[in-house]
Amino acid sequence: MLKAAYSFALILTLSACGFTPVHAPSNGAMHNSTQTRTLSNTSLSQIDIAIIPNRSGQYLRNQLIDNFYRNGTPTNAPYTLRVNPIQEQISDFDITIDSDATRRQLKLKTSFSLIDNKTKKPALTRAITATTSNNVLISEFSTLVAEQNARDAALKDLARQIELQIALFLN
Q1: SS3 at position 12
Q2: 44-170 under CATH 2.60.40.10, yes or no
Q3: Cα gap 104→109, rounded to integer Å
Q4: Which among 15, 67, 130, 148 could bridge 154 via Cys, Cβ 3.0 to 4.6 Å?
Q5: What pLDDT does 138 receive?
């Protein structure tokens, strides 16, 4: 009973503080009257996603397409998302006495720009990083599979970060 009362009080507190979900439909109003909202009609589905080089870039672009487009690709998009090539850094750690690594850390770094198609200038630029790790196993195939799974998880994290940064910018 106490947990239910606490949960209800928490919900009331969140609604009173101006909390709004990032992906909630917007009516175009700003909480701060000194700011103007110029992006009220723009959503993630109206952003064109440029080609990202390399295999990891293709995977990241496909993740972004899956996250952004629910009803097909946009025509005459007001913005274009440009993601720079992904830089990958692999580091061995958890070294044994025999100088063998048992864990490997994968760090992916990139930056992106949201280009205003009218002015051809960046409206938003951010650098993002994702870090994962995987086990180094006796079987080389198993290690490659674990490394690919770690890379996929890091790329999904980069896609999530890009989506969140753009959604916050648009809101």
Answers
A1: helix
A2: no
A3: 16
A4: 130
A5: 82
